[in-house]
Amino acid sequence: MSKLTGAYHIPNLGLQAPSITSGTDAAVVQRTWGLFQQEPALRKYAYGPNFTYREYAKTRNTLTAAFMQYSLLIGGTLLALCSPLRYLVRKFIFQPGEGPSREDSAKDYIEYRGVATPDVQPPSGSQAVCRAWYSGSMYLRK
User: Residue 81 above 90 pLDDT?
Assistant: First the structure.
């Protein structure tokens, strides 16, 4: 049912939906994992050979999760196949080097929560839970 609705229940995090940033964030995390695996000096920080990373966004209910899933699916397809739509979107989004002003982004806030399950045999049943947050502009340096 989760594949159909996009709603996933994750212990310690609750109901989750597809995230618009999951692809870009996953690429960074997987690259870091690969570097840790290859570099002998960093191997002690490696996440383990069976490491996986999945990113979701908090959602209120299954309906909003389904809306997010199908919006990303249909919107991504339309952007890929419809050049007039890409042209229109470019008119309304920030171009490289632009962005919100310092005042507009002063109240920005981001929060990440994560759950990790150790990859050990026999399974321990334990988990690590993390919460990281930041208040301020995601792009401007202070």
Answer: yes
Q: What is the pTM of this model?
A: 0.74
Residue with tokens 């249909």: 74
Q: Residue 29: how many CA atoms within 13 Å on its side-chain side?
A: 13
Q: What is the number of residues in the chain?
A: 142
Partners of 3 in the beta sheet?
Answer: none
The C-alpha atoms of residue 54 and residue 74 are separated, in whole angstroms, by 21
C-beta atoms surrounding 56 within 10 Å: 19
Alpha helices in the chain (DSSP H): 2-5, 22-38, 62-81, 83-92
On the 0-12 / 13-18 / 19+ scale of CB atoms within 10 A, 123 is exposed
**Parallel, antiparallel or unpaired: strands 14-18 and 56-58:** antiparallel
Quote the CA–CA distance of 59 and 15 in Å, as a whole number: 6
Region 105-132 average pLDDT:
86
Sign, CA dihedral 57-14-136-141, equals negative
pLDDT tens track for 87-103 = 998 888 877 777 788 88
